[in-house]
Design a protein that fits this description.
The complex is a heterotetramer, with 2 copies of chain A (318 residues) and 2 copies of chain B (324 residues). Chain A has 318 residues and is of the alpha/beta class. Chain A is built from 11 helices and 7 strands. In chain A, strand 4 and strand 5 form a beta hairpin. In chain A, helix 1 packs across helix 11 and helix 4 crosses helix 11. Chain B has 324 residues and is α/β, with parallel strands linked by helices. Chain B has 2 domains: 180 residues, 3-Layer(aba) Sandwich (Rossmann fold), CATH 3.40.50.970; 127 residues, 3-Layer(aba) Sandwich (Rossmann fold), CATH 3.40.50.920. Chain B is built from 12 helices and 14 strands. Chain B is globular and about 60 Å long. The termini of chain B are far apart. The chains are: A alpha/beta (318), B alpha/beta (324). Chains in contact: A-B, A-C, A-D, B-C, B-D, C-D. At the B-D interface, helix 4, helix 6 and helix 10 of B face helix 4, helix 6 and helix 10 of D. Bound molecules: thiamine diphosphate (TPP) (2 copies) and magnesium ion (2 copies).
Chain lengths: 318, 324, 318, 324
């Protein structure tokens, strides 16, 4: 039977991400948050399930839609929220912002404004591990759209050739901005792309946190024990538009409804309650607790100072 | 004259050229159904269909490659790279192929390709969505580089770019899309390679382009109140640069401030400055000043982002310094 | 039975290429030809077989090893030789050189100094054809090494997605400069790379001009009739080193011998003689004829004037 | 002192650093078995094995990506891009990732990556193997850009680059590999960011770098015979630029010729010139002249290639013009 601590951890992180993203949406609407933010709501099971399969000394690389990964990789809600608002107390001192959340000390090698931009880095981190002979692994996240970028293929080839401990996770939410996988990729089953590199691949239900966790765990174990890289496609969905102004003309309300019904959070809660691992009350409590934490983080961020003008020129060279 | 936005002006240019010439087509990420990340290609897909307005995969290098191959074989592609920050992904194709093919092949072919892209800061999008990389592009012989600041120039120059038989990189600015200005209803072209004095003046020349034109004009208005008459020159095209217009304004005012949004070191302003050095040194009564972007990646924080690029106040200061 | 005219054409072109390359080697050694030249000797059956399957209005794109393609695509030996020597009478007026042989009027969209650099262009030419609804096709040549470049994958995806009339031909000579396919690619069967794009693929004996011709003809017919792109891997070998100074430490003399024995030219001659299509005498005559042509081309090139200094600045803008 | 070639000097630098620090490794196309296209990594593979000297697939973008990821996680990669002409293939990774990561992440990490590459004309290799693209790189804050001209500088600067905690693009020149010069036997470093006066002079300053140093010194010798004393300054590092040394020489001679091999428009010389404009305008007795590469793709033909880049004669001419 499932461990209760784990159930709480998974559920709590998913709730944190969802509420964090809902809060950002609210702050964007109020112009408290400026600029864009690509929100992770709907996709929580992927980041949470996958990263729960890691040790704390393992690495991840993230994407332009990186809040979820950052939270799941032990991110501090306050420092993340402050970063997104561009405050001095942000995890990157307000210099990175939503698109560049990173915390190398915690193994998060960073979100990335460039689609596909971190796939090479992840591979390099894998090389580093292999050369240092530690038994860490790297989880490399990217979207379906990113699998059309040259560096994706170049990197998978090298990882497979050199048998690097990298798990490549494609978060297939069926669209790259407005362009569906149908209109962007010659193959609909994205796991086929690994065939070009003889890399083991599989597709997993990205709305099911346990399924993701299980699949990633297996691949992590392989990578840790020197069996090389793998490619996992997690089918999922993003609930919000690509950006705030996106009217979502490229997809139907029915399709959205279909995926809303598979919402990873209530589904996992329900399952845990059914299995007697958590009570409804505990779930409600957890939700409240998370709400509290998000409110605190928001307050913290809003009350935080802006960077000093001098900081424009600091942190450039080591 | 009617006033429309920079965005609409660009949209009209594309629409008119698509109608005028069957060889023209538009391709890029999210240009079709979505109408472009900043709405420039809105409704064109509905009007012209998948065949002439094409969504592409996220494959910047191949997008430009496609455009070159199509241009080389008789079409007039207009491809879009969503942010200039992603131009480096396609730079091998732009630099080594698009710009060089004609010369390398002894002038026996042409590459009538337009690459539309968009740059600049102002929306607190951070270091990967706020760059100004035009300086790289002016260092590529064989290219033309166009950077309009007003809706009228945007329309007239985009039409000229599409009709040009050479590869043109056409750089829009994200903070200009919503700006409005007078744009003729009738068809017109703005020639590539000609600067324009956007405000005449006597005491100092402010030489600039793209969004910094707006800040420079603002500065000029403030300066006027203090009795300083600044001439504001909008380069509009960066390659080929309009040396004649630059020399003319220097001969008139003898003092120059260059205003550019890109990072100062190795930026476009350096070339503008040296052009003056080489063509009008004896006309200068004071050293040229550059007001430029800070030499840092663009920080996210709005307070730092504002400091990282020129503003009207700093332009005024620089003007006063060159007048001292 | 095989058409005699065709046999003569194929054999003659292969001989032209071989002798052309041997001549360049000689000119390089004498410093009459300056700079580098990547020679096509050994690989003749690929260019000749493949391009013989085309109409004259079809396009090709070529590589850094482009002499063979240029000759096979109706190139003028004199103009090509003069180009390699940097003369005014060269096909590119001496501005391109060995790495940039091109003749767009004859459908040769050019050699390319950048490995993989022309794969995008080929795809664009395919798009052009599709949009103009002519029934031309594009043959896109590149090496095994080029299949590790991002643009290769990006382009194949688009070609398959849009069903463009492009035949991608990988000239697999088992090395990219000094790095063997074994050390560079996660798959040894390079045709597997097309699996990532659901693109039909096959491997052919690149030392057998008829086998190449047959395979390419079939794919050309498919492309012409709207059935989209395909990927052909032609296994072959380059006889010379990568460049003049290359001591070929990365491969064995035995391996070279193995491939020398499969030399496409004597093998094809023998076959034609055995089948009674050509006589030994005719073959010898042809060889003499080609020798004559190469000598003439060489003399022409050497006697040709250099470009005028003013030409430095011409031909840049249209 | 013993004399060795630029190639050997570089090879020694790599060898010594590989021995000194287990975190250092070398990766790139043909760097292992072949020893590098120009022989710079010769024999290192035999000595250090596949683990520390790695042949890679032809994947420039991923090669640099690999280097960044490895640097970010504790190693000191030295990756090679065979020709600077292929740098654009990796420029997204260099510009957006390597150079910006530390700043974007609030200074909480470092990227001790060295990217070795090689540029320049002179071997009639045509437009894809002869470029000088350093001007792009100096426009990328967060990078350092090093371009040594002599064997001694090559060795000392490569060692410094490898030990530097920032991403460094180290640009060699194909025409220098066989040049010889004195190189100390004992270990030494040459600091990044410092120019050097390679020949003192009184009448005019020739500011240059990389191969053009050799042509400039040749020119200076000819000029000396005509009674003109030229000071030749070798920048060695282009980013950060040694403003102090530049100002010093200008204050001494009051006349400047900049010699650069890259295409003139938007080239490195423009930044050097504007640096003088901004820091020593009043010291100038004549306009600065640039002697630069022609604004064309590099033509194959040896007769055109020679014309496309500066030569000692044209440098002498320019000097005489600024002395008029
Ligand atoms: C290289 C690059 N091209 C284009 C963009 C603009 N862009 C941002 S997100 C996005 C879609 C990405 O799709 P996908 O990889 O599927 O991730 P998702 O947004 O669906 O999570 C695009 C085109 C970018 N950031 N980087
Ligand atoms: C982008 C790029 N990287 C590296 C090189 C240097 N280079 C020239 S040819 C070559 C090997 C190419 O191998 P392959 O594609 O197999 O073609 P082959 O030479 O075997 O015909 C390399 C690495 C180049 N020209 N372009
Ligand atoms: Mg997606
Ligand atoms: Mg090969």
């Amino acid at each position: 039977m499932m461990d209760k601590t784990l159930a709480v951890q998974l559920l709590k992180q998913m709730m944190e991400i969802r509420q964090f993203e809902d809060k950002i949406m609210e702050l964007l609407a109020k112009n408290v948050a400026e600029g864009g933010s690509h929100l992770y709501a709907g996709m929580e099971a992927v980041a949470v399930g996958a990263i729960s399969a890691l040790r704390t000394d393992d690495y991840i690389t993230s994407t332009h839609r990186g809040h979820g990964h950052a939270i799941a990789k032990d991110g501090d809600l306050k420092a993340l929220m402050a970063e997104i608002l561009g405050r001095k107390t942000g995890v990157c001192k307000g210099k990175g912002g939503s698109l560049h959340l990173a915390d190398v000390s915690k193994g998060n090698l960073g979100a990335n404004g460039v689609v596909g931009g971190s796939i090479g880095l992840a591979t390099g981190a894998g090389l580093s591990i292999k050369m240092k002979k530690t038994d860490q692994v790297v989880l490399c996240f990217f979207g379906d759209g990113a699998t059309n970028q040259g560096i994706f293929y170049e990197s998978l080839n090298i990882a497979s050739l050199w048998q690097l401990p990298v798990i490549y996770i494609c978060e297939n939410n069926f669209y790259g901005m407005s362009v569906s996988v149908k209109r962007a990729s010659a193959v609909q089953d994205l796991s086929k792309k690994a065939l070009a590199f003889d890399m083991p691949a599989e597709t997993v239900d990205g709305m099911d946190v346990l399924a993701v966790r299980e699949s990633v765990s297996r691949r992590v174990n392989q990578a840790r024990s020197g069996q090389g890289p793998s490619f996992i496609v997690a089918n999922t969905y993003r609930y919000y538009g690509h950006s705030r102004s996106d009217p979502r003309v490229y997809r139907t309300r029915e399709e959205e409804k279909f995926w809303r019904e598979r919402d990873p959070i209530p589904n996992f809660s329900r399952k845990m309650i059914e299995q007697g691992i958590l009570s409804q009350e505990e779930v409600t409590q957890l939700e409240e607790q998370v709400k509290q934490a998000i409110e605190e983080a928001t307050e913290y961020a809003i009350d935080s100072p802006w960077p000093e003008p001098e900081e424009l020129y600091t942190d450039l060279y080591a | 004259m009617r006033e429309i936005t920079y965005r609409q002006a660009l949209n009209e240019a594309l629409d008119e050229e698509l109608t005028r010439d069957r060889a023209v087509f538009v391709a890029g990420e999210d240009v079709a159904i979505y109408g472009g990340a900043y709405g420039v290609t809105a409704d064109l897909w509905k009007k012209y269909g998948d065949d002439r307005v094409k969504d592409t995969p996220i494959s910047e290098s191949a997008i430009v490659g496609l455009g070159i191959g199509a241009a080389l074989t008789g079409l007039r592609p207009v491809v879009e790279i969503m942010y200039i920050d992603f131009i480096p992904l396609a730079l091998e194709q732009i630099n080594n192929q698009a710009a060089k093919i004609r010369y390398m092949f002894g002038g026996k072919c042409k590459v009538p390709l337009t690459i539309r892209t968009e740059g600049g800061a102002g929306r607190t999008l951070g270091a990967h969505h706020s760059q100004s990389l035009e300086a790289w592009l002016i260092h590529i012989p064989g290219l033309k580089v166009v950077m309009p600041a007003t809706p009228a120039d945007a329309k007239g120059l985009l039409k000229s770019s599409i009709r040009d038989d050479n590869p043109v990189v056409f750089i829009e600015h994200k903070m200009l899309y919503n700006t409005k200005g007078p744009v003729p209803e009738e068809e017109y072209l703005v020639p590539i390679g000609r600067a324009e004095v956007k405000k005449p003046g006597r005491d100092v020349s402010i030489i600039t382009y793209s969004r910094m034109l707006l800040f420079s004009l603002e500065a000029a208005v403030s300066l006027e109140k203090e009795g300083i008459s600044a001439e504001v020159v909008d380069l509009r095209t960066l390659l080929p640069m309009d040396v004649e217009s630059i020399v003319k304004t220097v001969k008139k005012t003898h003092r120059v401030v260059i205003v550019e949004e890109d990072c100062k070191t190795g930026g476009t302003g350096a070339e503008i400055g040296m052009t003056i050095m080489e063509n009008a040194f004896d006309e200068l009564d004071a050293p040229i000043k550059r007001v430029a972007g800070a030499d840092v990646p663009m920080p996210k924080s709005p307070v730092l982002e504002r400091l990282a690029i020129p503003d009207p106040e700093r332009i005024c200061q620089a003007v006063k310094e060159v007048l001292r």
